[in-house]
Specification:
By secondary structure, the protein is mainly alpha-helical. Helices cover 64% and strands 0% of the residues.
Length: 242
């Protein structure tokens, strides 16, 4: 069509009617060119949208929010790391002493070792101090376990993660200065309670230390989680009441 219009404009015909129609033909050509210039073809389905911003669906966290680590002590991976290593230690003991059962181990339980944080009438701060003091005693006893089981390949990991957990707990304290460090005489007193002339008895005591440490960690993690959850709920309730 455009070619025909160009031909009509540039043709050599000299008829009077064609000359009279030339202005209208030229106007039609110019109008068609303007329409072609203004026309934008639709985007092909699946083609990139250029620099158009990507909208995040409502209710979904952004990448920064999704990757933000939890600041809660109970969410730290150190708890599970220690427990996993202790499970490996227990596996080594069970391979060496095939007759170990829960009934047998109950006879070698060390009564003086601390249990998990008390669940009643204990603030979060008091619980944190309780856990640090308890870990201090277990760290001393892990030295005894090492002496009784020098061939164990994972006891050093238990000591490492226990020390790391103690540091994490102390960072959450408001009054770290109140943490009591065991004296050498106190450490010797703790170790003295485990002395026994029978070699098998000493091995079972070492196994019992690991078993009680695992229970201490599991109970303590649950206690801390409950206190952190309670504190978060109280914070939300206070905000809603304002």
């Amino acid at each position: 069509m455009t070619a025909q219009l160009l031909h009509s404009i540039t043709g050599n015909s000299s008829s009077a009617s064609q000359q009279r129609n030339m202005p209208s033909t030229l106007n039609a050509y110019l109008l068609s060119m303007l329409m072609l210039t203004a026309y934008t073809p639709p985007r092909v389905l699946g083609a990139p949208a250029g620099d158009a911003p990507t909208e995040i669906p409502a209710g979904e966290p952004s990448g920064e929010e999704a990757e933000r680590p939890s600041d809660l002590l109970s969410d730290s991976c150190v708890w599970d790391k220690i427990i996993a290593v202790i499970n490996r230690c227990e596996g080594e003991f069970e391979q060496k002493f095939k007759i170990i059962t829960n009934d047998v181990l109950d006879n070698y339980e060390i009564i003086s070792l601390p249990a998990g944080c008390p669940k009643v009438n204990f603030s979060k701060e008091s619980c944190l101090h309780w856990l640090v003091q308890g870990l201090s005693k277990y760290m001393v006893l892990l030295r005894y376990v090492e002496e009784e089981c020098p061939s164990s390949s994972v006891l050093s990991e238990v000591k490492h993660y226990s020390s790391l957990l103690s540091s994490l707990i102390q960072k959450k304290m408001k009054h770290r200065i109140q943490v009591m460090v065991l004296s050498r005489s106190q450490e010797q007193q703790i170790l003295k309670e485990l002395e026994h002339p029978d070699t098998f008895h000493q091995k079972m005591k070492a196994y019992s230390v690991l078993r009680q440490l695992k229970e201490f960690l599991i109970d303590s993690k649950h206690a801390i989680a409950n206190k952190e959850r309670l504190r978060a709920n109280n914070h939300v309730t206070t905000m809603l009441g304002e």
